[in-house]
């Protein structure tokens, strides 16, 4: 980040006075013995390990399952701040759904010249198989995890939309459970909005999107790649909490024009499949023929109205980072309103001027792959060595269209508990959004990810980040 | 319930049962090795044979001694039946069927895995062996306790129990299969002290040495041991006890699903035979033949259950 940028601390503000949303918590904190807090912190780790709340890190043999470090100091958001975020997120998510419907149907936005044709046509995440297909209820993004960052009192930015298959919601729920378990007295003092309705809302929201073939109460199942997937804990957690079956590809087949699961008594049809398997693996007959994770023929059943797939195939195009840079236009085009939430300024390296600027300023910028996620394959200029920068420069020049660049934002900090007491660390926020034909529902809170190293801006759990409970205050 | 879930429960509990049985076998073998050092090599060989691991063992070691056998049966991941391998297997299956388990059962299984992974991360010395074996049995008992205390008595429970008792029946039968010769009257220079040790060891491998003494005070003979382990309906590791449970649980499934399947027709005659025969008839027919046939039928029943309830697609 630029030298001289001040960093906004969400507890201390700019000036060192405790900010209003943190007042009650801070009062409580001051009266707590540090030894007790450190003990609670250690207890929380035991709790997570015993419960098996783990994730797998790809490419590491040892310690195949790891815990995501949990910090016991909550991140607090006021009711007023939340109301603003909520409106902005809802607007954005509605626009993205309208955009997805449009690009798979009449493509008005391209005809109107608001976004370039190439962005869609040459994009692997755009699925021609979805052209002309209308998903049940016209919902594409049933579940969204909008990544937000903050740089000041009123400065919020959307970093990524995660319209495809956002993960992390189980951590939001378990983090709260852990806090309730460890600090019940705190929740009597501070009025925090509950997050525990999420599984119920998810089930209802998915049920509201049942396909035409459904008769009776919709049967929902969660499709997982299996126990070796990094997010398997979350898949089983959500299935469990929703009272849905957790299925793998080999449990499913097409029976009488429906997708059915193999039970101990025969094959039972499924109405809504919340899949945690990427588009490419969904149907070996339509996409990657090598895939063992999906169901042969599911796309035909889908097109014929025999099943709802959540999120809809082809949604990934909205996560493309080049598309991201057009979201303000997209919001305006479909809602007729200005976008309430800001985008991070973005240089599309496909454009010659932008590329030249980015190459000149690599030391200052964050450069990301257009299709990347999880913090892999990106360059954080200010944290990179000369050699890393020069290696990246070569990659960037070879395929500029593969990259976008953004300024390094001065992400806000929240305090974490360290051996020496409280210390500020950079954070982001992923609220979880449910979309049904009837409503857009945003759970008050979300997953706060925190970089555990002092000064670090990388919050991804795959790269050593941790999480915090996120409190949205009642009035 | 998904067929895969039924299969996961079945195997989860087979594996847990196996870990406990292996611990018991090692305990009995260790005992003999301690008291009869001249017989120890044979004894370790028969422990490995009972665990069904002779071939795998031979690819790795040339001789049977305490250190190798203990390591191979407790820790070796190359041995699919080692305690560590089966505890991995039990937990992986528990992860697959996690939505069918209560939080208590899942946590007990996970704790069991965490504890044993720590305990078995280093070779176990003979000095530490009794404690380690105790912990293995204790951890498996905790999972069973959570199962009994918290799970609904429905099809989930039935598949868990079927896995437990099929595995247990197999294990008890294997002990007899490997040790049948010490129970034969022909081999008897009866009452020799080596025989006594062997008989004691068989009883110990099914945790029945005290129970046997309660029921047969002051008297040990091979035929009554065989009778006890095969035909006594009160002994929870006897073949007939296991089959009573298997038939019960299959019966609950039949009632629950309103579906009679081939596995029912296979299981009932096995129980009937065990109930109607006598130990004399078994010895007349040939103990070894009887046990071999039992092991074969038991395996076939496992396969039939797997097929009938669609464990695999």
Describe the secondary structure blueprint for this structure:
The complex is a heterodimer of chains A (about 475) and B (about 325).
Chain A: H1 23-31, H2 34-51, E1 55-56, E2 65-66, E3 70-77, H3 79-103, H4 108-111, H5 117-121, E4 143-145, E5 147-152, E6 155-160, H6 169-182, H7 184-189, H8 198-207, E7 220-223, H9 232-242, E8 245-247, E9 252-255, E10 258-263, E11 266-270, E12 272-275, H10 279-282, H11 298-303, E13 308-310, H12 321-324, H13 327-335, E14 342-343, E15 347-348, H14 352-360, E16 365-369, E17 379-380, H15 386-398, E18 403-407, E19 413-418, E20 421-430, E21 432-435, E22 440-442, E23 447-451, E24 465-472
Parallel strand pairs in A: 3-24, 6-14, 7-8, 7-12, 12-13
Antiparallel strand pairs in A: 1-2, 4-21, 5-6, 9-10, 10-11, 15-18, 16-17, 16-18, 19-20, 20-23, 21-22, 23-24
Helix pairs in contact in A: 3-13
Chain B: H1 3-35, H2 40-50, H3 54-58, H4 66-74, H5 83-96, H6 103-119, H7 129-150, H8 155-183, H9 193-205, H10 209-215, H11 222-231, H12 239-257, H13 262-276, H14 279-285, H15 287-308
Structural features, described:
The complex is a heterodimer of chains A (475) and B (313). By secondary structure, chain A is α+β, with helices and mostly antiparallel strands. Chain A is built from 15 helices and 24 strands. In chain A, the strands form seven sheets. Chain A has a five-stranded mixed beta sheet. Chain A has a four-stranded parallel beta sheet with strand order 8-7-12-13. Chain A has a four-stranded antiparallel beta sheet with strand order 15-18-16-17, with helices on one face. Chain B has 313 residues and is mostly helical. The chains are: A alpha+beta (475), B mainly alpha (313).
């Amino acid at each position: 980040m630029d030298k001289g940028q001040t960093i906004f601390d969400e507890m201390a503000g700019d000036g060192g006075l405790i900010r209003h949303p943190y007042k009650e918590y801070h009062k409580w904190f001051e009266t707590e013995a540090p030894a007790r807090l450190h003990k609670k912190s250690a207890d929380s780790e035991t709790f997570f390990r015993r419960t098996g709340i783990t994730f797998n890190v790809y490419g590491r043999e040892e310690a195949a399952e790891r815990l995501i470090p949990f910090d016991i100091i909550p991140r607090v958001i006021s009711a007023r701040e939340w109301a603003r975020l909520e409106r902005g997120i809802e607007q954005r998510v509605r626009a993205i759904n309208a955009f997805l419907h449009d690009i798979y149907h009449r493509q008005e936005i391209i005809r109107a010249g608001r976004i370039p044709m190439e962005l869609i046509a040459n994009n692997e995440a755009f699925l021609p198989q979805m052209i002309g297909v209308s998903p049940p209820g016209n919902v594409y993004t049933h579940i969204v995890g909008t990544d937000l960052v903050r740089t000041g009192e009123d400065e919020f930015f959307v970093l990524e939309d995660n319209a495809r298959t956002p993960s992390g919601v189980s951590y939001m729920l378990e983090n709260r459970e852990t806090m309730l378990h460890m600090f019940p007295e705190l929740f009597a003092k501070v009025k925090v909005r509950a997050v525990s309705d999420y599984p119920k809302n998810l089930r209802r929201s998915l049920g509201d999107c049942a396909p035409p073939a459904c008769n009776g109460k919709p049967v929902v199942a969660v499709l997982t790649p299996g126990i070796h997937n990094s997010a398997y804990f979350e898949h089983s957690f959500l299935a469990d909490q929703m009272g849905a079956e957790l299925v793998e590809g080999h449990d499913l087949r097409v029976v009488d024009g429906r997708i059915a699961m193999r039970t101990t008594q025969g094959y039972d049809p499924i109405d809504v499949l919340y899949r945690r398997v990427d588009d490419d693996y969904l149907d070996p007959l339509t996409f990657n023929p090598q895939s063992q994770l999906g169901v042969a023929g599911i796309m035909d059943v889908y097109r014929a109205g025999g099943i709802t797939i959540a999120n809809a195939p082809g949604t990934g195009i909205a996560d493309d980072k080049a598309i991201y840079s057009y979201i303000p236009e997209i919001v305006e085009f479909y809602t007729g309103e200005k976008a309430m939430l800001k985008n991070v300024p973005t240089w599309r390296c496909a454009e010659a001027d932008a590329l030249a600027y980015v190459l000149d300023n690599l030391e200052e910028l964050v450069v990301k792959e257009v299709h990347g996620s999880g913090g892999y394959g990106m360059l954080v200029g200010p944290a990179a060595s000369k050699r890393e920068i020069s290696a990246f420069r070569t990659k960037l020049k070879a395929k500029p269209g593969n990259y976008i660049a953004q300024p390094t934002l001065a992400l806000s900090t929240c305090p974490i508990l360290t051996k020496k007491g409280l210390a500020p660390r950079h954070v982001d926020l992923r609220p979880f959004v449910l979309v049904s034909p009837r409503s857009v529902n945003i759970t008050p809170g979300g997953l706060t990810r925190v970089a555990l190293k002092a000064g670090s801006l990388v919050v991804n759990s795959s790269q050593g980040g941790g999480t915090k409970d996120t409190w949205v205050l009642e009035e | 319930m998904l067929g895969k879930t039924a299969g996961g429960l079945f195997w989860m509990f087979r594996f847990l049962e196996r870990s406990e049985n292996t611990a018991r076998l090692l305990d009995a073998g260790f005992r003999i090795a301690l008291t009869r050092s001249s017989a120890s090599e044979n004894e370790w060989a028969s422990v490995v044979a009972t665990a069904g691991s002779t071939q795998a063992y031979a690819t790795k070691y040339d001789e049977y001694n305490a250190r190798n056998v203990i390591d191979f049966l407790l820790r070796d991941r190359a041995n699919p039946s080692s305690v560590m391998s089966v505890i991995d297997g039990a937990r992986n299956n528990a992860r697959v069927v996690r939505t069918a388990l209560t939080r208590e059962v899942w946590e007990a299984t996970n704790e069991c895995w965490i504890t044993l992974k720590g305990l078995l991360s280093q070779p176990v010395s003979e000095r530490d062996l009794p404690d380690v074996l105790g912990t293995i049995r204790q951890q498996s008992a905790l999972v069973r306790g959570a199962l009994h205390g918290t799970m609904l008595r429905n099809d989930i429970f039935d598949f868990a129990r079927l896995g437990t008792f099929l595995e247990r029946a197999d294990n008890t039968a294997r002990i007899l299969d490997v040790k049948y010769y010490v129970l034969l009257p022909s081999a008897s220079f009866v009452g020799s002290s080596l025989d006594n040790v062997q008989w004691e060891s068989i009883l110990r491998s099914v945790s029945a040495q005290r129970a046997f003494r309660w029921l047969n005070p002051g008297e040990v003979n091979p035929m009554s041991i065989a009778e006890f382990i095969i035909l006594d309906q009160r002994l929870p590791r006897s073949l007939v006890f296991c089959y009573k449970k298997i038939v019960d649980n299959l019966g609950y499934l039949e009632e629950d699903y309103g579906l009679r399947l081939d596995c029912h027709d296979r299981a009932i005659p096995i129980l009937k035979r065990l109930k109607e025969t006598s130990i004399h008839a078994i010895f007349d027919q040939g103990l070894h033949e009887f046990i071999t046939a039992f092991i074969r039928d038991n395996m076939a029943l496992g396969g039939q259950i797997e097929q009938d309830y669609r464990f695999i697609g």
